[in-house]
Each structure stands twice: as structure tokens, then as C-alpha cells.
Amino acid sequence: MRFTLNIWRQKGPNEAGRFVRYEASDVSPGMSFLEMLDAVNQKLLVAGEEPVAFEQDCREGICGSCSLVIDGIPHGPDRGITTCQLYMRRFPDGASITIEPWRARAFPIIKDLVVDRSALDRVMQAGGYISVNTGGAVDGNVLLIGKDRAETSMDAASCIGCGACVAACKNASAMLFVAAKVSHLALLPQGEPERTRRVSAMIEAMDREGFGSCGNQYECEAVCPKSISVRFIATLNREYLRAGIVESALSSESESPHAESV
Amino acid sequence: MITKLDSKIPSGPLETKWDRHRFSEKLVSPSNKRKLTIIVVGTGLAGASAASTLGQLGYQVECFCFHDSPRRAHSIAAQGGINAAKNYQDDGDSVGRLFYDTIKGGDFRSREANVYRLAQISTQIIDQCVALGIPFAREYGGQLANRSFGGVQVSRTFYCRGQTGQQLLLGAYSALCWQIERGQVTMRPRTEMLDLIVVDGQARGIVVRDLVTGRLSVHMAYAVVLATGGYSNVYYLSTNANGSNVTATYRAWKQGAAFANPCFTQIHPTAIPPGDVYQAKLTLMSESLRNDGRLWVPKLPADTRSPHDISEGERDYFLERRYPRFGNLAPRDIASRAVKAVCDEGRGVGPNGHGVYLDFAGVIEQQGFDVVRERYGNLFEMYHRITGEDAYRAPMRIYPAPHYTMGGLWVDYNLMSTIPGLFVIGEANFADHGANRLGASSLMQGLADGYFILPYTIGHYLATAKLPPVAEDHAQASAALHRVTSRITRLLDAKGGRTAASFHRDVGRLLWNHCGMSRDEAGLKLALASIPALRDAFWREVVVPGSGDAFNQELEYAGRVADYLEFAELLCHDALHRQESCGAHFREEHQTGDGEPTRDDSRFAHVAAWEYREGTIPILHKEPLAFEFVQPTTRSYQ
């Protein structure tokens, strides 16, 4: 198989980028999309040119590193997979394929197809955790969790933090990402004590990082490699609303779990 | 120079060693902890759990990873589960049994005291993970669910669908996030450790490269913790993530940390078979598939008929035949070798005969399509996506792949290497799995080291060692910086015409052929003779474009390949020295008439710890393994 690739090249964050055309020949249908790009890069290297920078690591759809917009769709045309799980047999021989980086204000481009997604880490640091010390935890069976609840929590927890939801959203919203973490922990008894503070802190951090708001068009769910449902955005909205009510009913001092570290 | 390997194993009864040891350890006062900086390199299960716990204890932690986020570390890809001796199923499990299974699974090449401690801590890990909000699988009544997993006869494995590693890592990552938010951990992602700084015999810092700007910098501390994972990628094709590499541990080796049992490399039996030359990795199919799938090949060699046309009587269910007691659940090393054996006989299936069938027809017929889909749906989907084949209709094809490395930097009972102040945790050390690791025990070990062992033992070191302040411009720091700079310059200046990947593929093939699933003296000597020439060619002919002071992925990769080209030799030296077959290390010369491995306890019941020597072959130090509590037996699964 052979393909014509239009790839976004950009030397650095402050340089202008542009599309450059490359020919990929001798592609076998069993090659993954990233292996096809590896092959293009090997040829560029031998020709003394700079290879196309893109992010990847586990190549089995779980680490969340790979991040390409392929013909306008984050992670490409198939549902429920990452770019590294996309195979060339999916494309017609001779096709022309456009490859771009995630585009969002909160994800500045580092080089070519590599973007800076550290904003997602900062949103997690704002509250995407249960603050328990190591050691002294009670037996894992002390708090029973029904199978259905555990499974729904796991559905939300399966987010790989790739950022495709942000890249697909015209508002560059990170609502699905935040909703996944908030829902995962809100569904578990262990997450209960910090439930109120968590959702407020994560939403604030999300706004601070320059992510937009949800426009209810569900592009995020459509491109999510783990098919995380937009129902969790509804959960997030409920949690946020609930937090507003709970917070107004409690004095503010009691909502400061880190007082001991100040 | 290493004078003596002191494992520092506490005396007394096995059951109380760890408790007594913890009590005898000196503590650091809370006010002093604030003044002590600890470096943690790597943010997988071991690194993230250690960094977060050390931060929680009050130390100042500087944490480094080469990924864009600590959440991407390769622990994330572990599918199957995590073992713990909870005995929730009341099926006869206990700390003692987990200990015995692990030490036997490792073919009696690990330390009793370490393994017992691991089994003891296993139950605490589950509790800690539940407290962190990890959504483990549950029964309808709300209790934690278990499944059985390769190589054992009890059901002690806890899991989160096929994503256990992901959930455990995200738990450790969330704990890390909390400590970053509190200011106890300074996280430096996209930063790669390129050398270790040793001052007056103590590990006191590292040299790192900022992978975005290319800037090199020196970071000093009172102790350095390496949690940088394993080295299976030395084989080029493995189940590891592409970024996983040996560089941090290898550079530490060159600064004086002994490297133990490098030849103990685990080949996992159930990966999707290799395809064409551009294949970037081998995808693992979870070992849990062997709970219900049956492995077989045609009885006749070169039988190219479709599997449906091969009748029951013409099939060889080779694991069930050779190991009737464990059948398809035989441990990884045994299953992998059995697969290789039938393929070597010309009975392999699929392209190049590199494959055997893993068949689910029986279980689908007995328990129904829906049961199989519920249990393995995601794995069948993954298989379909990669191969284009439907495993509900025709059997899967699988083939062994390099997966996990039991070898690693030598550490004592306190997880400290032969360089005082350099601690090594998780897959990066060698300690607990002996010559073979059982399924669902790497997650257990990574978290045991990071949450529960290192935080105690590092305190004793910091409380007792003399650690004068060291400036960032200390002569040893400058020397390390100079080593890194000259290496980068050399890579960029080669300006040849061959890519780093082509050399990586060559060294990987050499190792796979001669130091892979089975080894012999002639092959190892051939590999040892071939590697230096390949390495010389690399430095002459490699092409690395661009510059060192910018984002340059090819430069990162070429540096790692350069280390593989040296490390490969160490692996072969170790395999050559170990003239016995044990665990994952199978020497052709040492087997019984029916192809079972023969271990030699009289000559090789030791840890082989190698010391680096510039320009000559490494020096071997032996740590004898004493078995006071269990009697090493022939590891029979027949």
C-alpha cells in the first residue's frame, strides 16, 4: 500500500507551523499507524532530515501518550481506540491522510505533533485524589461496595488522560476528563470525605488552565479511546451543584483538609 | 571497588525478621526530614508510591520521569492483577504459601527473607490501594473478587478488569499528585537521568537532561532512589513500552553499583506473534487467557490445514500432555519453552511457524459465548484489531515475547545497592523473583518496595550515614556532567548513514537468538564476539540529526541504544557463567533426557553480582543463597 501524508511540522512553540507532504510507500496492511510513521521517519533519518516528532510509548492503547488528529478526528476514524491501535488496513490504498497535533489553548505545541498536556496533571493535583497516608489502612473488605457501583466507578476510572476529548471539543473543554475522575471517586465510599472539595477544586483548576466549557455536543465521547460516557459529565454537573449547596451550608474552615501542612 | 556483598538479612525466625528489623532501625526526626532532599527517578508503581510516601513522611522529594506525565510509566500496561495472601476465598492460602509459591516459582534463586517480607506486606498493599480509591473487581455482595493466575493453585489475584496496572498506577499517581500539591514533591516530567554522581563513595546526585530544552543540569540530594524499570527492550522487540530502557541502571552500574543476575529475563508465553520488520513491539495477551484457553499444535510437522480441519486426535495439547497437574497454567518460563520446543520441531502454526494455537472452542461450548465474552471480551477485541482475526471463531495464535527482567541492580535487604545512598526499587532491582517471576507479582513487588519497605530503610541510612553538604559544582558533579556532554556530542558528531533503530534491531536479534529462551556456550560466545563489532559500527555509522539543545527524540533514543550495545555483553557474560538451567535461564547443556531443566545447587545457588571494570570484562561477585526455612526441590510441575 502507499499513502500521501500531509503532516503538521512546527519547529517550536513560538515558530510558525505548516503542512508538509510525505509519501509513504511499501506499507503493509498489518502495520499500525505509528509503525507506518516510524517507517517514514527511518527514511527521513537516512536522508539526513529531521524526523517527525510525535508522542508514543506503550503502543497498546493504555499509556495515553499517542495523540494525533487524523483526517480531523483525534485518534483517527475508528471508535474506542488510540492512534497506536489503528492499523493501515483501515485505509484505502492510495489515500491521502492529514495528520495534526491536538489543538487547544491549554495544550501548547512543543514540536511538530507533540503538545504539552501538563495542564491535565495540574487539574489532577488540584484534587483528583483521596488524601490518605500510606500505612494503617483498614481491611479492604471493611467497606462493602456493590458490584454495579464498583463497575460504574471502574468505567469512569478507565480514563487514560490522553486529552482526545479536549482536542475534539470546539470549546477545548476538559469536562469529560474531569468528570471521569470526579465520578470515579464520588462513587466510592473512600472518596466521600473529600467529595465536595474535590469537585470544586478540579473545576476551578480546569477553568484556570484555559479549558472551555461543555457545549453538550458529545464529540468527546465519540473520540474517547475508552468510550467514557458523557453521562459522567451529568454526574459532574450534579456533583458541582451539590457542592455549591453543601458548601453554603457549612462554615468554610471545615473544608480545609490541608490545614495541618500549613 | 566492591569488597564484600553483605545482604544485611536480619537473623532469627523468618516470620519476625522484618518486624524486628524495623524496630531496630534508627528514625529521622520530623524537623530533620524537612532538611533532607531525596531524589526519586521513575514514576511507575515503585517510584510513584515511594515518592508520595517519602513526601508524606516530610522529606523534600525531587521526582523525575522522562514521560510527559508521571501517569504514563509502563506499570500502566500490566493487565492481569496483583497477588495478596488475603485468603478471602478460604482456599488454603496464607503468607507462608504465597512465600513458598514465589520462592519455588523463582526456582530457588531468591532470598528467603526478602520473599517472606513481600508475602507479608502483600495484604497491606490491597488495603492501601482500596483506601486510595482503586476500583477493584467486586462480588455482588460487595466483597473483593479474586481470580487464579498462572503458576498457582489458589485464587489470590485481585484485579480491575484487564487494567490492573493502570488502576494501581493511577492510584499511586494520585497519591503523588497530593504530595505535589502539598509542596512535598517537586515533579520534573520530561527529564531524563543520564548519570549518577558519587561523592566520597556515596550517591549524592544525578545529571539530567530536560527533554524539551535539551538543557543539562545537576541535582544533588542526600540519597538517590532508582525506580527505572526493566531492560527487556534490549531484545528490541518485547512487550515493554518503547521508552522503557536500561540507561539509568546501566549508568549507575558504571559508577560502581553491582548488577545482579542480568541473564534472568522472562519470556512471556502469550504474546501476539511477530509480523514484519517494522513491527515496533509485541503485544501481550493476558496470561489469564490460559485459565480457559487450551494450547495446541498439530501432531504432524508443517501441517498447514486450517485448525478446524484438524481433528481432535491429530492435535497435541502439549502443556496438558507434559504437565498434567498444571496443564495450561504451567508457569511462564515452562510454558514459553514448551512453545519453543514444538515450534522447533516444525509444528508451529502461522507465518514462519512462529506460533501455537490458544483455543477457546471448548469453554465456549461448555459455558457459552457470553461467559467468554464477559471474561475476555477486551482481549479478543484487541486480538481482532491487531491481527484482523476473530478468536471466537478460530483459535488465537500466540508466541513468546521478552516481558520482564528479574535481574537488576543488586540491593541488600534494605534495598540499597553497593553504592551507599543509592536505593533501587521495583523491577530495576533484582531481589525478589529469583530466576523466574510468577504472574501478578510484579505489581505486588513494586508497591511493596515503594509504599512499605524503602520509606523505612532509607530513614535508617539517612539517620546513621555521615552526609556533609555537597555543592552542585563539586568536582564529581562536574565530572559526571562532562561524561554526559561528551557522550551527546559524540552521538551528534557521528553523522553516519544508519539509524539507531537498525542497530537496536541487530543487537536485539543477536540476543534473541543466542541469549533468549535457550542458551548454549557456543551461541553465547558468538554473541560476545559479535557485540563489540556492532558497537564500533554504531559509533562510526549512526545518524542523529538536529542538536543537543532542543527537543530531539532521536538523540534520546540513540543514547539508550548505545547503552543496550554495552549492556548486551553483560547479559551474555552472566548467561555464560551460569552453567545450569534454572527458571527463565535455560542452558542447552543442562537438561534431562526429556528436555526438563537441571538446576545445580552445589555450584550455582548464588546471586551473581557483576562489578564494572573499564575496558575489560566485568568482575563476578557471588552472594551465596542460604535456605534455612525451605528445602530447594526440583521444580516440577508435571
CATH class of the domain at 475-624 in chain B, named Mainly Alpha
Overall shape of chain B: it is: globular
Rg of chain B: 24 Å
Write down the domain tally of chain A.
2
Question: What's the number of extended β-strand segments of chain B?
Answer: 19
Task: Output the CATH topology of the domain at 475-624 in chain B.
Answer: Methane Monooxygenase Hydroxylase, Chain G, domain 1
**CATH 4th-level superfamily of the largest domain in chain A:** Alpha-helical ferredoxin
Described by its quaternary structure, the protein is: heterodimer
Poorly predicted ranges of chain A (pLDDT <50, ≥5 residues)? none
Give the strand tally of chain A: 7
Write a brief caption for the model.
Chain A is α+β, with helices and mostly antiparallel strands and 262 residues long. Chain A has helices spanning 33-46, 118-125, 147-157, 164-168, 175-186, 195-208, 219-223, 231-249; strands at residues 3-9, 18-24, 68-70, 73-74, 96-101, 109-111, 114-115.
Task: Describe the model.
The complex is a heterodimer of chains A (262) and B (638). Helices cover 34% and strands 11% of the residues of chain A. By secondary structure, chain A is α+β, with helices and mostly antiparallel strands. Chain A folds into two domains: 3-111, Roll (Ubiquitin-like (UB roll)), CATH 3.10.20.30; 118-261, Fumarate Reductase Iron-sulfur Protein, Chain B, domain 2 (Orthogonal Bundle), CATH 1.10.1060. In chain A, the strands form two sheets. A five-stranded mixed beta sheet of chain A has the order 2-1-5-3-4. A two-stranded antiparallel sheet of chain A has the order 6-7. In chain A, a hairpin with an 8-residue loop joins strand 1 and strand 2 (18-24). In chain A, helix 3 (147-157) packs antiparallel against helix 5, helix 5 runs antiparallel to helix 6 (195-208) and helix 6 packs across helix 8 (231-249). The radius of gyration of chain A is 21 Å and the shape is elongated. The N and C termini of chain A lie far apart (62 Å). The mean pLDDT of chain A is 95. Among the domains of chain B are: 269-403, Succinate dehydrogenase/fumarate reductase flavoprotein, catalytic domain (Flavocytochrome C3, Chain A, domain 1); 475-624, Methane Monooxygenase Hydroxylase, Chain G, domain 1 (Up-down Bundle), CATH 1.20.58. Chain B is 37% helix and 14% strand. Chain B is built from 17 helices and 19 strands. Chain B has helices at residues 17-24, 30-33, 45-57, 95-105, 112-131, 164-181, 247-254, 318-322, 332-344, 361-367, 369-387, 442-464, 475-494, 500-514, 521-541, 553-577, 601-604; strands spanning 37-41, 60-64, 82-83, 157-158, 185-188, 191-199, 202-210, 216-220, 223-226, 259-260, 265-271, 294-298, 315-316, 356-359, 396-405, 408-409, 422-424, 606-611, 619-624. A five-stranded parallel beta sheet of chain B has the order 5-2-1-9-17. In chain B, strand 6 and strand 7 (202-210) form a beta hairpin. Chains A and B meet through helix 1, helix 2 and helix 3 of A and helix 3, helix 5, helix 6, helix 11 and helix 12 of B.
